[in-house]
Amino acid sequence: MGSEPMGFRPDPAPAGRVERELVSGEEIQRRVQARIDDNPALRDCGKRINAPMPKPTASESPTGCNWTMHYLGQFPDCEPIIDEIVELVQHEANIAGPTRRTGA
Fold this sequence. Notes:
Order of helices and strands: EHHEEHE
Radius of gyration: 18 Å
Largest sheet: 2 strands, parallel
Oligomer: single chain
Mean pLDDT: 78
Distance between the termini: 52 Å
Shape: elongated
Number of helices: 3
Strand content: 5-15%
Strand order of the largest sheet: 1-4
């Protein structure tokens, strides 16, 4: 045994973990929708694509993201592009926990 104190953790965040902004589900939906609307290939796909509300995951994924979006099957020709957009936003933001009320 060395002289290190018990419970010492030199790096509190797992390797490769991305720091994400905590925002509301509505803000995540707006960010995904804005990227969908700005993508020329999605504008030309012939369908209006509406970003769904993100769904919190049961537990934080290995990537550190705590939400996903379910739209599979609705836009078969456009799904790879939508997947990329969702992944980009997942690297930027996590859903913030519920706001705690005080004085109720």
